[in-house]
């Protein structure tokens, strides 16, 4: 894949010089999803702090149809009625898979439901927009996938470093940035990095909607692994949710018009595409 994307090490170095160090415009372009993802993560935290876990879990799954809507509006694509049905089925399946009965807690935290719903609405919109925006950038030029990742993550590093020093600057200066990092922490960081690169590959060669389906399948598989490794008990809601996820993946994958490429904007207007739903 490395050879397919870059051709050679010399070409990679040349591409880095041109697109990373010699093109501030491209860096600025890729800073948009970095900032939006940072906003999404913070809004998700605010939402979870002001909503019950079950309510948060259900409403946050709206990011799946939101991503599909952004795909239609921003990338000039069309989805069939069956595909839309499978998207909402996936949304319900993921909700059931992750569903846990509400439990009473001794710690009473003052919550603001309106703030929570507002925050989760922003997080859902950010999730859909950032993912589709990154997909559009990836597929609108011949720039290497790996160079695009470097461009985006450089902006992300700047944003997150600013947040770290704003919240824990004194402790970082006193104990060092890598204080408390163990081998397990480094391993988790490695897995997260590989997962981020893999996600970019999925977006490059399929689309953001399919990324949502693969993430849902990963949730089901990780739960099954927990059953095998840790003896987790399977519930009726999980079984039903897993079934819905599997059916939705099958329905979305049925033969259809190719939706992984960006179509010319003059083919159909946004209103016409939405009218087909």
From TrEMBL:
Subcellular location per the Swiss-Prot or TrEMBL entry: Golgi apparatus membrane
Keyword vocabulary terms for this entry: Membrane, Sugar transport, Transmembrane, Transmembrane helix, Transport
SUPFAM superfamilies the record matches: Multidrug resistance efflux transporter EmrE
Organism superkingdom: Eukaryota
Membrane topology: Multi-pass membrane protein
Keyword Transmembrane among UniProt keywords: yes
A GO cellular component entry from the record: Golgi membrane
Descriptive protein name: CMP-sialic acid transporter
Main location: Golgi
Species, as recorded: Chlamydotis macqueenii (Macqueen's bustard)
A GO MF label: pyrimidine nucleotide-sugar transmembrane transporter activity
InterPro entries hit by this protein: EmrE-like (IPR037185), Nuc_sug_transpt (IPR007271)
Annotated PANTHER family: NUCLEOTIDE-SUGAR TRANSMEMBRANE TRANSPORTER (PTHR10231)
Family indicated by similarity: Belongs to the nucleotide-sugar transporter family. SLC35A subfamily.
Membrane-crossing segments per the record: 82-99, 114-134, 146-166, 178-201, 213-232, 238-254
């Amino acid at each position: 894949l490395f050879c397919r994307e870059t051709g050679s090490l010399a070409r990679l170095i040349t591409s880095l010089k041109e697109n990373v160090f010699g093109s501030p415009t491209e860096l600025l372009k890729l800073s948009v999803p970095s900032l939006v993802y940072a906003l999404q993560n913070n809004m998700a935290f605010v939402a979870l702090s002001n909503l019950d876990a079950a309510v948060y879990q259900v409403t946050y799954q709206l990011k799946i149809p939101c991503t599909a809507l952004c795909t239609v509006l921003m990338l000039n694509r069309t989805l069939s009625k069956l595909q839309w049905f499978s998207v909402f089925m996936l949304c319900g399946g993921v909700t059931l898979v992750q569903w846990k009965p509400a439990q009473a807690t001794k710690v009473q935290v003052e919550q603001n439901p309106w703030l929570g719903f507002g925050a989760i609405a922003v997080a859902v919109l950010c999730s859909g927009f950032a993912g589709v925006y990154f997909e559009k950038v990836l597929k609108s030029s011949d720039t290497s996938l790996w160079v695009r990742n470097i461009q985006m993550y450089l902006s992300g590093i700047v944003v997150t470093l600013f947040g770290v020093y704003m919240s824990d600057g004194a402790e970082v200066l006193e104990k060092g940035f890598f204080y408390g990092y163990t081998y397990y922490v480094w391993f988790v960081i490695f897995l997260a990095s590989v997962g981020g690169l893999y996600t970019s590959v999925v977006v490059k060669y399929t689309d953001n909607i399919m990324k949502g389906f693969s993430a849902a399948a990963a949730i089901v598989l990780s739960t099954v692994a927990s059953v095998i490794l840790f003896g987790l008990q399977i519930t009726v809601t999980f079984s039903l949710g897993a079934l819905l996820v599997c059916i939705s993946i099958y329905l979305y994958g049925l033969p259809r018009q190719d939706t992984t490429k960006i179509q010319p904007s003059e083919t159909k207007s946004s209103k016409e595409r939405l009218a087909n739903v």
